[in-house]
Each structure stands twice: as structure tokens, then as C-alpha cells.
Design a protein that fits this description.
The complex is a heterodimer. Helices cover 30% and strands 19% of the residues of chain A. Chain A is an alpha/beta fold. In chain A, the strands form three sheets. Chain A has an eight-stranded parallel barrel, surrounded by six helices. Chain A has a four-stranded antiparallel β-sheet with strand order 5-6-12-11, with no helix packed on it. In chain A, helix 2 links the parallel strand 7 and strand 8 (123-127). By secondary structure, chain B is α/β, with parallel strands linked by helices. Chain B has helices spanning 36-39, 85-92, 131-140, 160-166, 185-196, 210-222, 259-262; strands spanning 12-25, 28-34, 47-51, 62-65, 68-70, 75-81, 98-105, 118-124, 144-151, 169-174, 181-182, 202-207, 226-230, 246-248, 256-258, 265-267. In chain B, helix 5 (185-196) packs parallel to helix 6 (210-222). The chains are: A alpha/beta, B alpha/beta. At the A-B interface, strand 5, strand 6 and helix 7 of A face loops of B. The complex binds flavin-adenine dinucleotide, flavin mononucleotide (FMN) and FE2/S2 (inorganic) cluster. FE2/S2 (inorganic) cluster binds next to helix 7 of chain B.
Chain lengths: 304, 275
């Protein structure tokens, strides 16, 4: 019997496969395609305090082995999530990780406060990639001090696992990863999307209404691995790898580089049952490699 | 039922074998897939999402309307124009090869047996695709199918023989006047609408460029005819997850409707196609 389970702090996942925020709706959308109970966990679309309709269209564009999106955190808002979406999720036999964001530090805290009373949530993933309205639109996540402040304040009000999700749009990820760890984060997930852009050469117009968007998909996998490698060198808390994962071999690459678990994003669009396929193939990978416990490959990168 | 209430509950991903692939004109193709489950579980207006490549290029699936379906023989057909990399690849597959098809997706056109004596289909260009399937269903329900079909030039017409064989009354237009009425199909609809149908006992179904459908919506409103439109947008997922396929809702406060999940068929009053 192959053991695929892994631990994020005291949160035991039945396998390392989580869904990435914003690519798996609120779970229910994928129930025709995946047995949701087989997943290690579901990370929901970023929730903000108030509902958001999101950015104007076009919001998505296909690029070489990837895509850009500028959805603009369209979501139902924390209230409607608790009343309409959470009851479905709470019945599942998998871990529910609620991704949250705010446009001020206080808003982050308030979203978590509202969620604290709700049952069926196992962890929070803090999306620090929101533009900081007060500081003039720069992402919170590019500033170690504010990342630490948000993490600390949230840790104070919850006993649930807190995962801080980092942006790759910075020169060095190490200071931010360290700041999150010092502030008490139970785990770090990385990465969110890379800022990118596409232009129509005939109309001379940007292909996204908001001009720039976030790049995801296989195109960013090597970049994501490098950021994971850098973070793994400096922190000791568990890391969750994200970026361009399409199959079980990609998962193994991330785990060997230092990830305890991974999140599957854009791949869900290409094949809505991909997470289930990956979980099956991960068992086959272990059999082929004569590994009894998937945990044993974490951080086992062999450098000459 | 409104189109919104009919969104599909069941959907499958299947490797489907190509039974036949035909080039109907230099850039228009028709492919028939063997897929009995899909054929028996879909209605006109729904679409399928096809993985046209086994690599990451192109990455997304490509959406196509169900063009023609045989429950008895267990096949489905798509009709498409080559406009880019994905449709080009699709046109090059041959009989016997298999493609990964996801579907049926989305909601479907509503046919009301209670009040409908006729159904008026209005197609612009490749918007013709879902109407062969719809015509067959209308006929099965003893509702008279009427087709208005506009293209730029006569060589772009497809399936005219099939519509004729079914006995569909057909009105054609070309922008260059090479066949049928010279001008836009919406002008022909405006001209003929009083003659062709009893307005209380018909529904208009439209598929084509947004501008065409916006104009039709106004004609339908002026004549108190019910109107359902089938929309196209870019789609990354087709299953309601990416939030990339929105259209403006017809509401005071800015909001969007998502084409893959809440559509692709909408009643014209639900949405705002004005820009
Ligand atoms: C629900 C639905 C049903 C459809 N049914 C049919 C059908 O029955 N027959 C058919 O021929 N086509 C249909 N389409 C459109 C079809 O999906 C696109 O033509 C196809 O995805 C283009 O892929 P490509 O790789 O060849 O083009 P790309 O290389 O991706 O793009 C080529 C050009 O086409 C434009 N384009 C791509 N997709 C769309 C789109 N969805 N709407 C408008 N412009 C687009 C691009 O911006 C670009 O300019 C449908 C679309 C939807 C959403
Ligand atoms: C359409 C889309 C929407 C996304 N929305 C969110 C979001 O709301 N919150 C968030 O933290 N990340 C969001 N992401 C980022 C993903 O969770 C993930 O970090 C990123 O896509 C990289 O992984 P991938 O290459 O596997 O997709 C979104 C990504 C995509 C493609
Ligand atoms: S195409 Fe992804 S939500 Fe509609």
C-alpha cells in the first residue's frame, strides 16, 4: 500500500494534491469530473469582504504554453460564501482551504473574523497579491513588513492553519518567505501568477482589457521551481508548490525541490478531471520508483 | 423554463473516434465523431470542448456547437471554419484518429410545444452550425422550421441541401448579392417577418456576430416575438471555473453572465450586446 499522505503543520492531507485558488471555482463546478473526496484538499477562489464583479472583458488570453488572466478577484463575497458555497464543501471528505484577500490590512482581518464562526474550514490561504490601496496600489506581497503584519494579525485571531501565498513578482523571494515564517505562518504556498502582457499586432491593442495580467500554466513551471528552490533554502515551515503543474511527474519535481504539497491550477481548465488522474499516476510513480511513502521524496534534490 | 434553468447537469470527457472529416469549402470543415453517450444526452444549443492537441500547444480546448446528432447511430457532428491554430489542427485529423471531447456543456435552446407553431432561426456565417440539429428537433415536435441565413458571399453557404431535404423554409442573403437578398440578414428578417410567422406562436433563435444578434433583438422586441440568442466568447475552461467568458448582463448595476455555464443560450432581454 503506497502512502500518499503528507502533513502541513498539524493538517494531514490524504495526498499532496490541492486545487489552486481561482481555477477550481468553489469545488462544486468540478463534481461532474472529479471525485472531490479523493483530493488532498480544495483551495477556493479568493474571497473578499464584499462581492466583486471583477474586471472588464477580455479577461483571459491564451499564450505559448500558458495563459494570462485579469479576472480581478471576481467572487461572491464572504457572506454569500458562508451561506451558499461552504455547506457543500463542508460535507466533503477532504480538507477545505479558504483563500482570502483584502484591500487593507484590516480587511484581511475582518474576512477571517467572519469565517472563524463558520464550520468546515481547515485552513486559510492568505493571498497577499492584492494591490494595497492605501500604499498606492503596490502589492502587499512585495513588502516583507506588511506581509508579516497581515500574517501576525491573522494568526492572533485563529487556531486554523495559516498558509501565506506569495507573489513571484519580486527580485528575491527569500526575505518575504522569511518574514511570513517569522510572523507565524504555518506554511507558505508559492507562486501566484507572473505579471505579463500580450498585444494584437493587427489592431495594435492589448489583448486584455486591463492591459496586463497574470501568467500561469506550463510556461511558468521552471520559474516556479526556481522560486521554490530559493524559498526552501531559507525556511523550515512546509512549502506548497504552485506553477504550471500538469501531471504526476511535475508534482514529483516540485516535491523533490522542497514542496510538501502542490496546487494544480490552469491544468484544471485543460482537463477538469486532471487532479484525479494525477493522484492515480502519483501512486504509479511511487510503485515505479519503489517508494512506499511519497513524503520520502520531499526536499530530496540531489546536487553534486 | 428559462435557458438558465436548463444548464446541463451531466457532462463527460471522452476519447472519441473520428468517423469522417470533410472539407465543405476551402476553410469550412465538418467532422463526425463516434460518441453514443454524448449523442443521447445532448440538445441543440449545447456545445462540446475539444482538446485539439496532445501537447501544450494550443493549451486550451476549443468550443464548438453540436451541429448534427444521431441518437440512433450514436454520432455527433461539428461544423467549423479554420480561423487559427486550433481549428487548423482540427481540420487535419483523419478518420480513425481519436480526440478528447468534453461535453455536453452549457444550456440549450428552449422549444415550447405549448405555444409554438413555428421556429425562426437566424444565422450569420458559421452561426448556422447549431441549426441543423435544432431544425430536426423542431420537426420532431411538429413545429415548422424557418431559416434566415446570411453570409458575405455565396460560396460561404453550407448545408443548404440538408436544410432543403428536411423541408426547412429558407431565406438567404449575401452582402455582395451573389445569391439571395443583397444586404444583411437582419434587413431581410425585418422585411419578411410579417409574412412568415404568426408572431404569438413563434420563437426566434439567433446565432452569429453580436451586432447581428443585437439588431435582431430590437426587431424581435418591436414585434413582440420571443428571442433566444447563442453567444460565443473566449473560453479557457468551459465549465464555469475561470470566469473568463462573461458578457454584460442587462441590469442597472454592472454585472456579468458567464457564457459557458449560464449560456451559451440567453433570452435577449437577459443580456446587453450593445458594445
Ligand atoms: C459556445 C461556442 C460555440 C462555438 N461553436 C462554433 C462552431 O460551431 N463552429 C465554429 O467554426 N466556431 C465555433 N465557435 C468558435 C470557435 O470556438 C473558435 O473559432 C475557435 O476556438 C478558434 O480557435 P483557433 O485556435 O482556430 O483560433 P485562435 O488561433 O485561438 O484565434 C484565431 C482568431 O480567432 C479569434 N477567436 C478565437 N476564438 C474566438 C471566439 N470564441 N469568438 C470570437 N473570436 C474568437 C481570436 O481572437 C483570433 O483573432 C464557438 C465558440 C463558442 C464559445
Ligand atoms: C483564471 C485564474 C484565476 C486565478 N485566481 C486566483 C485567485 O483568485 N486567488 C489566488 O490566490 N490565485 C489565483 N490564481 C492563481 C493560481 O491560484 C495559481 O497560483 C497560478 O495560476 C499558478 O499555477 P498554475 O500555473 O498551475 O495555474 C488564478 C489563476 C488563474 C489562471
Ligand atoms: S470558460 Fe471558464 S468560466 Fe466560462
Amino acid at each position: 500500500m503506497i502512502d500518499l499522505s503528507v502533513n502541513i503543520g498539524n493538517l494531514k492531507l490524504k495526498n499532496p494534491i490541492l486545487t489552486a485558488s481561482g481555477t477550481f471555482g468553489y469545488g462544486e463546478e468540478f463534481s461532474p469530473y472529479v471525485d472531490l473526496n479523493l483530493l488532498g484538499g480544495i483551495v477556493t477562489k479568493t474571497l473578499t469582504l464584499n462581492p466583486r464583479v471583477g474586471n472588464p472583458f477580455p479577461r483571459i488570453v491564451e499564450t505559448s504554453s500558458g495563459m494570462l488572466n485579469s479576472i480581478g478577484l471576481a467572487n461572491v463575497g464572504v457572506g454569500k460564501f458562508i451561506s451558499d458555497k461552504l455547506p457543500f464543501l463542508a460535507r466533503l471528505d477532504t480538507k477545505i482551504i479558504v483563500n482570502i484577500a483584502g484591500f487593507t490590512v484590516d480587511e484581511y482581518v475582518e474576512v477571517v473574523t467572519r469565517l472563524e464562526d463558520a464550520e468546515g474550514i481547515h485552513a486559510y490561504e492568505i493571498n497577499v497579491s492584492c494591490p494595497n490601496v492605501k500604499e498606492g496600489g503596490l502589492e502587499f506581497g512585495s513588502d516583507p513588513t506588511i506581509t508579516a503584519e497581515i500574517t501576525e494579525k491573522i494568526k492572533k485571531i485563529t487556531d486554523r492553519i495559516v498558509i501565506v501565498k506569495l507573489t513571484p513578482n519580486i527580485t528575491k523571494i527569500e526575505p518575504i518567505a522569511l518574514a511570513a515564517e517569522k510572523a507565524g505562518a504555518d506554511a507558505i504556498s508559492l507562486i501566484n501568477t507572473y505579471v505579463g502582457m500580450a498585444v494584437d499586432p493587427y489592431s495594435r491593442k492589448p489583448k486584455l482589457a486591463r492591459i496586463k495580467g497574470g501568467l500561469s500554466g506550463p510556461a511558468i513551471k521552471p520559474l516556479a521551481l526556481a522560486k521554490l528552490f530559493d524559498a526552501a533554502k531559507v525556511v523550515t515551515i512546509p512549502l506548497i508548490g504552485i506553477g504550471g503543474i500538469m501531471n504526476a511527474c511535475d508534482v514529483a519535481e516540485f516535491m523533490i525541490t522542497g514542496a510538501t504539497a502542490v496546487e494544480i491550477g490552469t491544468a484544471n481548465f485543460v482537463d477538469p478531471s486532471v487532479c484525479q488522474t494525477i493522484i492515480n499516476d502519483l501512486t504509479n510513480y511511487c510503485i515505479e520508483m519503489k517508494i512506499d511513502r511519497i513524503q520520502d521524496i520531499i526536499n530530496q534534490l540531489e546536487i553534486e | 423554463m428559462t435557458p438558465d434553468q436548463t444548464r446541463n447537469r451531466v457532462s463527460y470527457s471522452h476519447s472519441s473516434e473520428i468517423i469522417s472529416s470533410h472539407r465543405l469549402s476551402p476553410d469550412i470543415h465538418r467532422i463526425r465523431f463516434d460518441n453514443p453517450i454524448l449523442a443521447n444526452n445532448t440538445l441543440p444549443g449545447q456545445f462540446i470542448n475539444i482538446k485539439v492537441s496532445t501537447t501544450n500547444t494550443p493549451l486550451w480546448r476549443r468550443p464548438f456547437s453540436l451541429h448534427n446528432v444521431s441518437k440512433e447511430e450514436g454520432w455527433v457532428e461539428i461544423l467549423f471554419r479554420v480561423v487559427g491554430i486550433g481549428t487548423k489542427m482540427l481540420s487535419q485529423y483523419r478518420q480513425g484518429q481519436c480526440l478528447d471531447i468534453l461535453g455536453p456543456l452549457g444550456n440549450h435552446f428552449i422549444i415550447s410545444h405549448i405555444y409554438m407553431h413555428s421556429g425562426i432561426m437566424v444565422a450569420g456565417g458559421l452561426g448556422i452550425a447549431p441549426f441543423l440539429f435544432l431544425s430536426k428537433l423542431l420537426l420532431k415536435d411538429k413545429i415548422k422550421p424557418i431559416l434566415f441565413y446570411g453570409v458575405k458571399t455565396a460560396s460561404e453557404f453550407c448545408c443548404l441541401d440538408e436544410f432543403a431535404d428536411l423541408g426547412v423554409s429558407t431565406f438567404l442573403s449575401t452582402e455582395d448579392g451573389s445569391l439571395g437578398y443583397k444586404g444583411f440578414i437582419t434587413d431581410l428578417v425585418r422585411d419578411q417577418i410579417d409574412q412568415v410567422a404568426d408572431k404569438q406562436h413563434t420563437t426566434m433563435y439567433a446565432c452569429g456576430p453580436n451586432r447581428m444578434m443585437n439588431t435582431l433583438g430590437k426587431i424581435a422586441l418591436a414585434h413582440h416575438i420571443k428571442c433566444q440568442v447563442s453567444l460565443e466568447t473566449l473560453m479557457a475552461c468551459g465549465v464555469g471555473a475561470c470566469l473568463g467568458c462573461g458578457v454584460k448582463a442587462n441590469s442597472e448595476k454592472l454585472s456579468y453572465r458567464y457564457v459557458c455555464k449560464e449560456g451559451p443560450v440567453f433570452t435577449i432581454s437577459e443580456i446587453d450586446l450593445s458594445d
